[in-house]
Amino acid sequence: MASALHKDYPPELSAEEEHYLLSNLKDWSIAHGLAVRPAPSFVQPSQDPSGVLATTAPVTLFPSLFPRVCFEEGLAIQTAYNELYSAIARDEEWLKGIVEELIHIDDFVGKLWETHLAVKKEGYVQNLSLGLFRSDYMVHTNSSSPASRPGLKQVEFNTIASSFGGLSTQVSALHRYLLTIDAYPSSTASIIKRDTLHQSNSASSLAKGLAAAHNAYESSRSGRPLCVLLVVQDPERNVFDQRHLEYALLEESGVRSFRLPFQQTLSHTRLESDRTLVYTPPNSRTDSYEVTTIYFRAGYSPDDYLNEQDWSARLYLEKSRAIKCPSVLTQLAGCKKVQQVLATPHSPHLKHFLSDDQVASRVLATFAPIYPLDKSEAGHEARNLAKDPASAARYVLKPQREGGGNNIYRKNIPPFLEKLPETHWPAYILMEMIEPPPLRNVILRNGDVQRGGVIGELGVYGVCLWRNGDGGDSGEVLQNWEAGYLLRTKGDQSEEGGVAAGFGAVDSCCVV
Ligand code: ADP
Ligand code: MG
Ligand code: MG
């Protein structure tokens, strides 16, 4: 893909061209909700006391170039990944084996596991689970590592609160709009075309997943109207991303949803004796709703649990008859440790979960080398690699956390480990850095235009609805589809890529 044709991409714009492109981009973004609430560092809360302001989401001016084969492979294997992770979430015994290595050294994982055990003790009353997943990848170009062939490599697999499905649909539409109004210079005409620009239908497709769970829910026949409940963080800067899903759910499937800040769970919901979850909106003409599906956009980070009461709230929701997206077990299936175990060379695990060998080998080809830091032989080798500054420079160290900002990169690994008691090392996994091709783009963030080298991360969404097993029965997948994509682009000087965390921009793929 690094052909001569693409080395000047994106082209320099004259001042006039840039003005035309930017003014159209800014208006389109706000008019179409490609927006975020402003960061406190950008607009001080005292300047917006009633919280009415929004600003354009960080976006790239141009769609980024992405190799077609990699793009198509990422989309094509998503249903296999959905199947894999739903099978893991259904296999409590297998997950237990993994989680038990973590619970004594990772309080957060320990608390989640306790929550599961507490519900198990009373008996789960909901047999269905929903996953709105996102598998993240980068294109690996450097073949100097014998373990890692060039191609699409998975960064991680998200099983909870996979974000940007709403904004992703909008940014791909923005880039198509800019093409339509001739905002891109004619020198890009052979590259940016209607059939190379990929539209992401993630907002609508993820909302259809929520609707599928809602419709599969067997009502308690309480006579109450039914709803989907979004359990959210408060405040939430990325609220419009979530709103796009809510609006699609209402407009395309006629399903009502409500937003409930996680901390208000216990004051606004109640469990009936048959564990029907009832939600009472603060000012509704209807008294209360029966919740069919709980969609967690909070609860993935220890920061969301301020005290024991928040853990009680999570337990309470998990106990309910509502379908969870995700259940605690599904959330745990997303641990980086699970990814590491699956990626272990010659391990039987992938084959155990994916019966089709060809499918399993396609999934296997997307794994980058990942090592444990435990007492095993591989763990011992990895510990030595991680301690040595020269070899550590090729790795990233990851704890069992979500939401960005938790990893330790390259030369920072040895001093970090030095301070950490060795008994806690197995709470982390060591992953080879994926090395994407050098690309350039222009990012608009907080009104600033930033140019330079960038790195792209492709996320592929997946919807999976399944029935959990009971006793000897291992359950079954009821719905499984690929649900659009996300491209996040960050400056190549930044190790992290979180858009919400302030390091990246939403983008769309121009396949080449
Ligand atoms: P989180 O669950 O917090 O998002 P990730 O595993 O996605 O954790 O890591 C955060 C970011 O770090 C990624 O978006 C990516 O930019 C970078 N990153 C993680 N793993 C790798 C890797 N193996 N190679 C290159 N960059 C990586
Ligand atoms: Mg993650
Ligand atoms: Mg990530």
Task: Please provide a written account of the structure.
The protein is of the alpha+beta class and 512 residues long. It folds into two domains: 12-368 and 434-511, no CATH class; 369-433, Glutathione synthase lid domain (Dna Ligase, domain 1, 2-Layer Sandwich), CATH 3.30.1490.50. Helix content is 34%, strand content 24%. Strands 3, 5, 6, 17, 18, 19 and 20 form a seven-stranded antiparallel sheet that branches. Helix 8 links the parallel strand 7 (226-232) and strand 8 (257-261). Helix 6 (165-180) packs across helix 8. The N and C termini lie close together (6 Å). The relative contact order is 0.20. The site of one magnesium ion (MG) has 3 residues, from strand 6. The site of one magnesium ion has 3 residues, from strand 6. Homodimer. One of its GO terms (molecular function) is ATP binding. One of its GO terms (cellular component) is cytosol. Keywords: ATP-binding, Glutathione biosynthesis, Ligase, Magnesium, Metal-binding, Nucleotide-binding.
Strand-pairing-aware structural class: alpha+beta
Question: What is the count of structural domains?
Answer: 2
Low-confidence stretches: none
For the largest beta-sheet, the strand count, sense and barrel status come to:
7 strands, antiparallel
In round numbers, the mean pLDDT is 95
Q: Report the total helices.
A: 17
Find the count of extended strands (DSSP E, 2+ residues): 21
Beta fraction: 15-25%
- The whole-angstrom Rg is 23 Å
Distance between the termini: 6 Å
Bound molecules: adenosine-5'-diphosphate, magnesium ion
Shape: globular
EC number: 6.3.2.3
InterPro entries: Glutathione_synthase, Glutathione_synthase_a-hlx, Glutathione_synthase_C_euk, Glutathione_synthase_N_euk, GSH-S_sub-bd_sf, GSH_synth_subst-bd, PreATP-grasp_dom_sf
Family: Belongs to the eukaryotic GSH synthase family.
Catalytic activity: gamma-L-glutamyl-L-cysteine + glycine + ATP = glutathione + ADP + phosphate + H(+)
